[in-house]
């Protein structure tokens, strides 16, 4: 059945040929977009939904989350707000809780957060393992994630478990753990950072993952300048995430590569780090994505709109740049061309705003503007318009 969405006041497509359209329409058929263009040219459809002048844009593509977890880290957050510095060690608290949780508890928690994100316009979501840190629990996390999320990343190299020897643990990650997890995931990641894994250890993990056919991602340059960006670019990683502290060489390397700089502004705010240098990256020609980094410790939000607002108001990005980075940019970071865009053949992932343009995402900060969401052609939420 073909569904015509009409009455679109502003349509952000992210398609270079279509651009941004006024007085536009979109046709959905099944799970895909069948047509998009000017309202005057609409084809026939079985059903018609009028959004009455509201803005329509692609669903958010959140390319960095950690949502297979149990437990709570409110106390850590309160301590940080009182002045305690953030460190990677807090991950161990979540590891203990996650190992103790049942499959049913972990699945329910993951579904709750994915549904929460979807109601706010997120229609494609990546999530990671990394709170198991042993073979059994990393496999369990990957299996649970694969049943719910669009993209799954293996992050066994999130932290050295308490009491473990770092080199022995890296041996485990590169061997038995990767062998067991690889069939369940598309990506592998490593936390290349002070307090986690150094350059040599990170390189071992990434190369072992590549040998097993997995795509690469890197957590890097979050707590200070370091080897994360350089390693990601050298190994052809799809993205390097955080990028809070970048040297000029890092910026130049990203600009000259296909590696996406994924910025996580909610995490920077929550950890009281400087915001990532989005303007420097964009001006240099780097590809930038925005993601939530939703996790229980350093960024407990699923709101991509909050990330977009922050990028505009505090990171010197334009509204169009921020929206592109949270949609098409996230798709680039996942090496996908079927999401983050509105064009014929793309996945039918759309969101409708309770506003006439995407500018209102930053113009009205903190106001919930998601009026409707389609994911894979299914209308998940609706607070607008007539149907006939």
UniProtKB/TrEMBL annotation:
One of its GO terms (molecular function) is imidazolonepropionase activity. N-formimidoyl-L-glutamate binds at residues 131, 295, 297. Residues 240-358 form the Amidohydrolase-related domain. Its EC number is 3.5.2.7. This is Imidazolonepropionase. Belongs to the metallo-dependent hydrolases superfamily. HutI family. It comes from Amycolatopsis orientalis. InterPro entries: Amidohydro-rel, HutI, Metal-dep_hydrolase_composite, Metal_Hydrolase. Fe(3+) binds at residues 64, 66, 219, 293.
């Amino acid at each position: 059945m073909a569904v015509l969405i009409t009455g679109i006041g502003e349509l952000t497509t992210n398609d270079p040929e279509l651009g941004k359209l006024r007085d536009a329409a979109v046709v959905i058929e099944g799970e895909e977009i069948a047509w998009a263009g000017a309202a005057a040219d609409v084809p026939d459809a079985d059903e018609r939904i009028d959004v009455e002048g509201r803005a329509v844009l692609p669903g958010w593509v959140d390319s960095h989350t950690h949502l297979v977890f149990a437990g709570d880290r409110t106390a850590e957050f309160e301590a940080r707000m009182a002045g305690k510095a953030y460190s990677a060690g807090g991950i161990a608290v979540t590891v203990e809780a996650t190992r103790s949780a049942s499959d049913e508890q972990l699945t329910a928690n993951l579904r709750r957060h994915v549904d929460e994100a979807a109601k706010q316009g997120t229609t494609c979501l990546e999530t990671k393992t990394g709170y198991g840190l042993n073979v059994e629990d990393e496999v369990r996390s990957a299996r649970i994630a694969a049943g719910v999320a669009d993209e799954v990343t293996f992050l066994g190299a999130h932290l050295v478990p308490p009491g473990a020897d770092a080199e022995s643990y890296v041996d485990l990650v590169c061997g038995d753990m990767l062998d067991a997890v690889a069939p369940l995931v598309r990506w592998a990641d490593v936390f290349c950072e002070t307090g986690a894994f150094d350059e040599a250890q990170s390189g071992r993990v990434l190369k072992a993952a590549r040998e097993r056919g997995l795509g690469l991602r890197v957590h890097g340059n979050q707590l200070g300048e370091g080897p994360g960006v350089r390693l990601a670019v050298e190994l052809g990683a799809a993205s390097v995430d955080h990028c809070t502290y970048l040297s000029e060489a890092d910026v130049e390397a990203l600009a000259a590569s296909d590696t996406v700089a994924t910025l996580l502004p909610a995490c920077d705010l929550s950890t009281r780090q400087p915001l990532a240098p989005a303007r420097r990256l964009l001006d240099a020609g780097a590809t930038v994505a925005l993601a939530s980094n939703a996790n229980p410790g350093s960024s407990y939000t699923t709101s991509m709109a909050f990330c977009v607002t922050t990028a505009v108001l505090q990171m010197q990005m334009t509204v169009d740049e921020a929206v592109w980075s949270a949609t098409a940019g996230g798709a680039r970071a996942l090496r996908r061309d079927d999401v983050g865009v509105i064009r014929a053949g793309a996945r039918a992932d759309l969101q409708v705003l309770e506003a006439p343009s995407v500018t209102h995402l930053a113009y009205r900060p903190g106001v919930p503007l998601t009026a409707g969401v389609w994911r894979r052609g299914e209308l998940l939420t609706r607070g607008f318009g007539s149907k006939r």
